[in-house]
Amino acid sequence: MPSEEQMMDVDTKTSLDKLPAGMERSLPLWEIASVVTSCLIAEWAVLVFIGRNKLVMAIPVTLAFALMLYSHRERGETLRDIGLRTDNFLVSCRLLLLPTVLAVLLILTFGWFTSQGHFGAPWRWRFVALPLWALFQQYVLNGFINRRAHMALGAGAKSIALVAIAFSVLHLPSPLLALLTLVAGATWGFVYQRSPNLYALALSHSAVSLTLAMIVSPYWLNGLRVGFKYFG
After folding, report:
1. Please, are residues 12 and 24 in contact by the beta-carbon 8 Å criterion?
2. How far is Cα 45 from Cα 157, in angstroms, rounded to an integer?
């Protein structure tokens, strides 16, 4: 079991204390909405109106990243606070082991029955960068969104549900991905609140994502595409 020191501790006693009464809870929700909206703009609006210009697509994501960094600075949050730490790595891994193994087994079973036992997905070199991509996603999902949800709604079911819904919305319109990320987001959100370690979460995320990409037919996941790219 994680100790009290290892569990997520959100300290809001910073320069933001000068905000009007009530804003200390509503502001984190606006921060979450801003980051999620920026990601949705990159996934949907940019592709629809501008096309596949990666430089333009990076603009809303960069703005969201800048907001997150500014928010961390204003709240006095350190890398250790957000989960970039090693002291609780093994604790987090123990919490993640069972749900990760179950997820991998379920994906293998689904892939077996939907492909008649033939797993033919080719290895792609971009999979090598998957742990870094998973770490970045876990930083946004838990190092930022989960912490802000905790500030606004407290620890427990409400804040975890918000994390899961945000993660699922960002994987629309793929119905299977939206469902999987809803469950995964809730699981990772729960573990983060118990023992905040982004490295352990990234390992779990990488294992599940790699299994999905290698085992499940593109017919079901459409190449893990989200947003407007889902349609081609």
Report:
1. yes
2. 32
